[in-house]
């Protein structure tokens, strides 16, 4: 039975002396303030909270709080939420809890009274749940209001400078009259929209359920609709408004809809809801048009952190984390404390008005009544460099962009002044020190003389310097040690590394009138100037033509700088540091040599290697040394941490790479980051340039027949790859095992207890997987959604404790490419190829087809796969590993394409006579084995799986996922 608590029992004034029931009711927990206790309760399960409420009267009060049950409910909610009148009832409904005497429960019960307990924290929270915001209506604020503002006036006076309220932009929109909760409900009542809440879960609610929730809720921070995919959920809504002319310039429009980051949102919320203090992602600018209701806005210029807000910047990847009170709490608790000179720029936005928020401005929004609005973020010529700066690797510049000089608590004013003088004189800027690696909490500190300092450091008088939100000033704080290709990519960035490079490349080609600006942005984000200097030196050394002006930026979506120069492709290997790059190139060159020795047909489908070498810096000058993979290059002979290598044709080839991969699997994230940073030596390889396009650029326009042909091609070439003999292995990691065990007749190693161990050739491969298994839970937690949290705790039970003790049943270890994705498959128009796959003799047609994403001169309706690219990730292991990227990325989970591939591949994945669906050894079940590989993969393969098979986001076991994704493999036997 549910018993209501009288709120007044929590806030009774101490008019007469009463016994404080808190010590007896809480025991040792009494030393904790109520806000800490309430925060701890949010980490419990609903069932545990219900049990804890029975412990004592005070625990009953704390466990009865609706904000607590709201938090518990959202954390445990499925993808779609339905409010049941209270958050406790909603949470119990999620647990399928039924009330035996529902009629009795609906009768009003006598409230419980608990004298002797008072809580200001609970009182304030209760007040925020029921307060009215009428008092905010009448102050129009101090943001400038304009009407009939021309594009030129907007750009000259406001764009990139200050916010403005613009009237009249929505007067002709259908949304001006139809975007009210009542009208939208008529047409979109059954449409589910995404909610904004303080949870990493993506929760949706049908509009009819949400409107019902708005009418009855009394939450201190109400849920509100904030859906960036409303156009996909309800396409007709996009016809109800248009982008105002002054905001139409958007550099993200060169990207396809599924490539560009979230940029438009439908917003709907009740009174007291809103957006807490934040800076828009990637330092984009935004416009927000209100269609009904009223909103209260507060804004601060860039670099001025609002009171009560805490900014943290991750020292490894620059991810910016902002801790802020709810919008309502800030207005009620912090705003009144501000002296007049520290108050924000503010205004009340009225229906039909559009507010412009410039790049980098802090803003907070409070809905004064039920509101409906639409907003879009954009990148134009005024903020483009700021966006590129924010994408650049490192951490300090991100903090300075948001927290201003507060981020510089570990740098003396003299250092900053010196850099500013260099900036003003045009002499460049000196390096800034990196003593402390964190932006501390922005809270007033009391100095030794008792005065408060509004900032993070009492050692810097910030009033002596004026913060300049200028791209040249902010660029001073870029960390020169950080590089786009080798540094961690901040999770707060709105697009990934590959997408960033592709975006800049498309801007370079598609907006030639803006090339000066695009080049500046590329230098900030990609170090484009440095890499272009390096590739120029390589071209000069080998007598190659320089990249044309159209090819000045690196191309491709890989993890290394790649340039086009005439008929050549130059790839500089930088990913994961020098040692990893040497092993990548050494193994690749050894593999090409193996292909030539056996005359494998695969060599006709790999771009020819024309040259290779080492690029390095010496005394500030860029130099080149030839290296064909044989021997240890002189320039790195004494480089640490490289170890001594055995005398071999390819000292950095497959044998050494296996040892390196094993060591790397045991490294922590900081160790990996350190290994990648600070290198001034880079291997490179020059290959033949292919004509045509990569599959990623044409996949949506290809016919089904051509796609089936591609699947057959991949099956045939993977067969050729997996038949290439591996060099003889002599792994040092086998020694200990071999000393304690002897081989049986089948070549398997047995220990003294007759337990089956892995075949010798599998030893280091499985040892490497064992190392990856140690931190599998941490990686799943880091990846997060859309992986079901329920599977996190089941992963260690699903994967074998020790893979070395599992009878693999696999036929052999083979070469594996490991990265056959849609950007590593090269396609040519069928008009250029004969039936045998070679190019025809029409040079005019060939010249009209360009590579790496350039437009073809005429539309092509049929394509033929010709080459597999990028063998820098070569390794040795289970051949089924190559199926993972092919099936998930190229085939996108299509079982028909998988069947076509297997029909062409033909080779078995297990030894002759082994039944792949046998239950006696689940690891011999192909579906189980490949599922384990997906979980232990270095990349977030699981994100791709749960992104493709959306129904699996509700999966209760790994076996369920295994069967749905890989179950078809269990009927495949192949032929010898």
From TrEMBL:
The keyword Hydrolase does not apply. The keyword Iron applies. Residues 26-72 form the F-box domain. Coiled coil: none annotated. Keywords: Iron, Metal-binding, Nucleus, Oxidoreductase. It is found in: Nucleus. Residues 232-395 form the JmjC domain. Its main location: nucleus. Its cofactor is Fe(2+). One of its GO terms (cellular component) is cytoplasm. It comes from the Eukaryota. GO terms for molecular function: metal ion binding; oxidoreductase activity. Belongs to the JARID1 histone demethylase family. PANTHER family: ARGININE DEMETHYLASE AND LYSYL-HYDROXYLASE JMJD (PTHR12480), TRANSCRIPTION FACTOR JUMONJI, JMJC DOMAIN-CONTAINING PROTEIN (PTHR12480:SF35). This is F-box protein. It comes from Capsicum baccatum (Peruvian pepper).
